[in-house]
């Protein structure tokens, strides 16, 4: 399949990756290991890798293991707690840990401390009804091998030992409950993206920053053609590839729409912006060593679940609280206000209108969030940290999230929370829409992409994939012995031992 770049006006590649975030760099590194002879190019609109949704200040950096995110364990109409989604996400994060461990051993990634740190994950609620939910969730989760090591308490003193800021100054007349996993993590996906981009550059990938792709068209020869502009110099040129991956975050929808593939029809995007309160004052940050997630407000989207997080960015420790949702028509933080209106097509107009009509509570919630003052945001923080002082917290703007709008099985428009892989029937082009838990599960999503887009090569790649990820093709929740082996091995390599 390998081809050399053309010296003519159209530059030809085997693979073109659009976007320099965690998804494109992960796929690029996997492909370079599987097919080192393939000629690959990566075009990133900004002047460096991992600066949009993968940037540490633009995402929660949880390392989604489904340990503390309560929206992954909903209560059903029969009163039971469903753990299916949580198990799926946790299994996928173990795949991420295995691939990162492999890359650390191979020198693709540097010291684990530059991108991942051990950090307990805690779920925290208050009130009788919420405490009962968390108790029932604990009982359901501990029955799953992936979550068998969960701890639970409804004792305020124990909560105080786990996370002092949660308990200090709290009125103990209100019941509280908390569940904890000691082996959680904090991940800097911006650092992972930049390290993988550096590796790709060293491996001969044609890595170009400040290069914007506009439009994708299918040529008569079956290749995908695109126009590329160097935004720094103004130079324009054409490029083509046998396979294209659109990992451009919020910019993926318009590029996939321009391709005209049948699979993108009916899809739309609903942008949600966010803000966080942040402090770097050591007197506060040194007393909180955990990611603490609560329950979302009524009408709030799952991505707006409040959480008080320890973060490790560039070796510096901080605390973040939020997110406080807002609304902007941008699809990217560095995007355009015209992104939303220009994404409307005849094939997605009705589904988008149906989503709007069915989600008035979300619209109301967003309006209230936009109207919140800094003082009101600190008051929300005090639900978690009762003694928080307004002057110690700054407000930062996080990344833009574009939630997927699509047709369900009945043909009606629905708002979907999660990550959606879109691929043409012939596997020649694929892209991602949506948001959380995308970054944490990037390797699993990319393996799924390989299976869908390169079915003819999967058998020849299998042994190398199993070398990268020992559990490849198997579910760890179904194999407790393998789960134990994988957990211990990756904890040692990634330096995550308690």
Automatic annotation (TrEMBL):
Keyword Flavoprotein: yes
Signal peptide boundaries: none
Cofactor(s), by name: FAD
GO biological process, one term: tricarboxylic acid cycle
Catalytic activity: (S)-malate + a quinone = a quinol + oxaloacetate
InterPro entries xrefs: FAD/NAD-bd_sf (IPR036188), MQO (IPR006231)
SUPFAM superfamilies in alphabetical order: FAD/NAD(P)-binding domain
GO MF entries: (S)-2-hydroxyglutarate dehydrogenase activity; L-malate dehydrogenase (quinone) activity
EC supergroup of this enzyme: oxidoreductase
Pathway(s) this gene product operates in, as recorded in its UniProt entry: Carbohydrate metabolism; tricarboxylic acid cycle; oxaloacetate from (S)-malate (quinone route): step 1/1
UniProt entry keywords in alphabetical sequence: FAD, Flavoprotein, Oxidoreductase, Tricarboxylic acid cycle
Domain of life, source organism: Bacteria
The keyword Glycoprotein belongs to this UniProt entry's keyword annotation: no
Enzyme Commission number(s) from the entry: 1.1.5.4
Xref: PANTHER family: L-2-HYDROXYGLUTARATE DEHYDROGENASE, MITOCHONDRIAL
Family under the similarity heading: Belongs to the MQO family.
Name assigned to this protein: Probable malate:quinone oxidoreductase
Originating organism: Nesterenkonia natronophila
Gene: mqo
